[in-house]
Amino acid sequence: DSGVTQTPKHLITATGQRVTLRCSPRSGDLSVYWYQQSLDQGLQFLIQYYNGEERAKGNILERFSAQQFPDLHSELNLSSLELGDSALYFCASSVLQGNTGELFFGEGSRLTVL
Amino acid sequence: QKEVEQDPGPLSVPEGAIVSLNCTYSNSAFQYFMWYRQYSRKGPELLMYTYSSGNKEDGRFTAQVDKSSKYISLFIRDSQPSDSATYLCAIGEGSNYKLTFGKGTLLTVNP
Questions:
Q1: How confident is the model over A37-69, as pLDDT tens digits?
Q2: B31 to chain A, minimum CA–CA distance in Å?
C-alpha cells in the first residue's frame, strides 16, 4: 500500500459527460501529480500541484482541469468526454524537497467512456 | 522521435534467467533515471533510481546508465516468477520530478 488513495476505482460513463477523479496523497506529501496511462501512449504526465499551486503542466487537454485543495487532496476534472479518454488515471505524490525522486502512485481510476 | 523509447516486449523467460531491459532517451538535460515496476491492476512502484552514469546494484537488480549514449538498462539476475510485471523506465529533469516514462516492457518469468 503506497498510502495514496484514489476514488473511484472504476467509472463508466458516456461521451459528452463530465467526471471528477479524486486523490488523497500520502500523509505529509505536498506534491501531487496526475498521469494518464493508455495502451498506445503509455504513462503520460498531465499536471503537478505543489501545496495548492500548479507547478508543472504536461500533455493535459483543455477539457481537463485539476486543483489541489488546502487539505492537499486533489481532483482531476474531465469534461466533454470522448471515447479516446478511456484510460487509467493515476495520481502520485511526493515530498519534493530533498526527495530521491520517488513518486508514490495510487492504484488508479479506470475510466471507460462508451 | 519520442523523448523516451522502450521496447514493449512482451518478454518471456524461464525462472533463473538473466533479464535485460533497456530504454533510450533523446534529451541531454535529463538528470535522473529510474525504473518502476507495475504489477497488474496496481500503480507503478519505484524499483531503482540513479543520478549518474555507471552501475547501481540492489540485490538481484542492477541499473546501468550511459549518458554519452543516452541509454539505460535494468538487469535482473536469477529472475523469479514474482518478478513478472511491467517494467517502466522513467527519466526526469529539474526539481519538480516531472518524470517522462517509457511505455513499459511486460515481463513474464515462467516457473
A1: 998 888 999 999 989 999 889 889 999 999 999
A2: 11
